[in-house]
Amino acid sequence: MKNKYRKVVFVILFGAMIIIASRSALFASYVVEGESMEPTLDDGNLLMVNKFVYDLTEVDRFDVIVFRANEKEDYVKRVIGIPGDTIYYQDDKLYINGNYVEEDFLQEYAQATLSNKPYTENFSLEEVTGETKVPKGKLFVMGDNRGESLDSRAFGFIAQTQLVGKVDVKYWPISQASLSLGN
């Protein structure tokens, strides 16, 4: 009987060690710093980032991602343009490949902050990057808080090799929005 309990304890401990080791290889925890992703993510939110998803699938437009901005910082932004896309904003509307694309995630926030100026200033991909299309292996990213975000409009494209992963879950503070990020 004693030997049976030892085996069970060993299996549980071994399983826990495997889970802990694979969790750090497959997922990462991040804390949001700053306001560039409001209203989707707020300063201080805790995130779970899926580090392996892009080994299995392509990056999708509107994914919320974490990427290496430089040797010391990682940024969280939303993918707006994928390779081959043409992008421009006109009168607070996003056009991708010549077609208007609704940004449902911004509607309520943009309307609540409306003033005499647009939520997203007019620009074209060519004006901010010098390119007419998002190049192969690159992404065009923006923060949801368009007036307060350092993003591809300032630093240009990011390389897909800079990706840390996709934000799957906002787990603190817990809210209904926490459950809808992994779409």
Task: Report what the structure shows.
It is built from 5 helices and 11 strands; from the N terminus they run αββαβββββαβαβαββ. With 183 residues, the protein is α+β, with helices and mostly antiparallel strands. It has a 7-stranded antiparallel β-sheet. The chain is elongated and about 75 Å long. Mean pLDDT is 83; it is low at 176-183.
Quickly list its features.
four-stranded antiparallel sheet; seven-stranded antiparallel sheet; 183 residues; alpha+beta
Order of helices and strands: HEEHEEEEEHEHEHEE
Oligomer: single chain
Helix content: 25-40%
Using the alpha-carbon principal axes, give the shape: elongated
Radius of gyration: 20 Å
In brief:
With 183 residues, this protein is of the alpha+beta class.
Write the layout of secondary structure elements.
Elements: H1 2-26, E1 27-31, E2 46-50, H2 53-56, E3 64-68, E4 74-81, E5 87-90, E6 93-96, E7 99-101, H3 104-112, E8 123-124, H4 125-129, E9 138-142, H5 152-155, E10 158-159, E11 163-172
Antiparallel strand pairs: 1-2, 2-11, 3-4, 3-11, 4-9, 5-6, 5-8, 6-7, 9-10
